[in-house]
Design brief:
Number of helices of chain B: 10
CATH superfamily of chain A: P-loop containing nucleotide triphosphate hydrolases
Shape of chain B: globular
Number of helices of chain A: 7
Number of strands of chain A: 12
Oligomer: heterodimer
Structural class of chain B: alpha/beta
Distance between the termini of chain B: 59 Å
CATH class of chain A: Alpha Beta
Radius of gyration of chain A: 18 Å
Order of helices and strands of chain A: EEEHEEHEEHHEHEHEEEH
Number of strands of chain B: 21
Largest sheet of chain A: 6 strands, mixed
Strand content of chain A: 25-35%
Shape of chain A: globular
Strand order of the largest sheet of chain A: 6-9-10-3-11-12
CATH topology of chain A: Rossmann fold
Number of domains of chain A: 1
Largest sheet of chain B: 11 strands, mixed
Radius of gyration of chain B: 22 Å
Structural class of chain A: alpha/beta
Largest interface: A-B, 32 and 24 residues
Helix content of chain B: 10-25%
CATH architecture of chain A: 3-Layer(aba) Sandwich
Number of domains of chain B: 2
Strand content of chain B: 35-45%
Chain lengths: ~260, ~475
Amino acid sequence: MLEINDLHAGIGDREILRGITLRVNAGEVHAVMGPNGSGKSTLAQVLAGNPSYQVTRGTVSYNGQNLLELDPEVRAQNGIFLAFQYPVEIPGVSNAYFLRSAYNEIRKAKGMEEVDPLEFLDLVEEKLKLVDMDESMLSRSVNQGFSGGEKKRNEIFQMAVLSPRLAILDETDSGLDIDALRIVAQGVNTLRSPENATIVVTHYQRLLNYIIPDFVHVIANGRIVKSGGKELALELEEKGYDWLQNVDAGAGAAA
Amino acid sequence: MSDVATRKSPRDSVAVGKNGADPVSTRALSPIEAYRANFQQQPAAPEWLQLLRAQGMQRFEALGFPTTKNEDWHFTSVAPIAERTFHPAMTTTAGVSSEGSTAGMVARADLRRFTFDQPAWHTLVFVNGEFSEDLSSYAGLGEKVRVSSLAKAIRSGVGRPDRLLGKIAAFENHAFTALNTAFIRDGAFIELQADAVVGEPIHLLFVSEGEGEAISHPRNLVVAAQNSRATIIESYVAIRDNCYFTNAVTEISLGDGARIDHYKMQRESEKSFHVGTTQIRQHRDSQLHSFSFAVGGSLARTNIYTSLDGNAATCTLNGLYLTDGVQHIDNQTSIEHIAPNCPSHEVYKGVLDGRSHGVFNGKVYVHPEAQKTDGKQSNNNLLLSPNARVDTKPQLEIFADDVKCTHGATVGRLDEVAMFYLNSRGIGRETARMLLTYAFAADVLETIELQPMKEELEKMVLARFADSGA
């Protein structure tokens, strides 16, 4: 599904990703871990097409397409979803309007008919239950006045409604209490399927108690320095990241 | 009833043609001389009005058009208006009889898109500044309410318009108000007696129509006696994209405890010029809720001035201006805190695109006696294009010591983080831009209590930015 090859990217003159190589197949859950500033969030942003980052080298292929030449909205229309670490507040636009616009844009891109507000409401009711949110949130402005936990649940709710093929969760667990963490994980697990893939970017092992990854990768200094199975996450929890900082790049780059 | 006050008599028509556009007599004159000539050719009026007009003309000639050296016009050059010679707009009474009446060319169907889909509203239609009975409908206003054309009130003297006309809208230092005063002829005259409550809004719809560079000077007078209530809308629209100049003045007097919700819709044609002043005087415990929407005109200026003369009078002045292309839209507000215990709240927002230029100048003047004044003012602008420009000048002058006043102004561009957030959900740049623009304007639109008005403006904001370039 996704093949990242020697990806270099950064902001301005600052290179953050220094040769990421990673392969993600349908049905897999990959955890990308690493210390602060290692580049794991940058990887998530670059995959979603954030224009603030420039790709300087390497390739990313998504279902056979050159992902890097697609605008972010086209990536989303093709099934990529990024759950933001810091979801954006948009005062004045209701969640319902925002999400229905997104839903319909994606349907239009697929040549499907748009849904009207009532149909849409039917469709989202179930998804709201999944993340334990009340219907009243639909009429509130996007993320405005939401608590940290509500914002993260809203990301998972959007993911549930848009049902992406490749979901990228950028530190969705940061700032969540244990109950919220469980709700978020449950949302993600419900959406797991043999056709979909998930990349979970996280600093802590905690979330991986609830979302069991097939593969764990450790990023340090813009490179994947170690890859392994879910037990790698536990090892990191125990030893921290320091012992990996000096590991030579490419040691376990292929998953 | 005699028609003598407004009909152009043959004697007065010698110098100008029937439609006031004789090229021979005006070509050699400077624009200001042309105003003088047109002034002298006005039909006769009651003595008090002749006098008032003469005072207006005198002040206008003494002041001349303002230049950018004038602090009130620092960011707005009115040269395109000052250098043109406009001719008086064609009216039905000018072409009394059979042929060529312009009002006849405006049909109800043409106006439908300006009437908010509200047949129950009381609507007074003015074509080129002149009242059209045929196009208007304002039945069932109740006994305590009198609504008529100003021309009719001037002719008949009913309601004594002379008592307040020209007394609220100061023209000693305002050239455009002086010019309007020199040409007072028609507009709306609304009187609310004590305790009168008008359920449905009264919509004054000023339509410009016709060829050539015409000028009209609509003049409205609203007198709201104590504890009366009404919603009044002033709309300025055009059927086609003609070049003309609307120079409007509205005077509103709010008696003790009276409340007026005032909406100004400036939707003139893109080639036109518009200067409109609404000036209000508020007595004790009165409430003014003003919303000014400006989207039309190549060069447009809206002034909303209120004076809080009585204890505990309150006002909210809100507004939204949307500019595009090479438009220049200027908004000036003035709140005079004369009496104590008066709150005033003001939020103006602007969205500027293309190579357009927006201006906001909000004055809050707190006089020495106006203790316990609570004034809040903000102006926020969104620049959608690198070539758009806005000048904002909040102006707070305080001469009392026990007051609470805040003001602030911002100028920003579209939030790229929010843009990426929307894009990452599959929403393309165009739609995202529209959504974010709408979101920017949403909170000021939210202050509109009149639901059909709010919905119409929301639609207009969305439509305005739906198809413009990124």
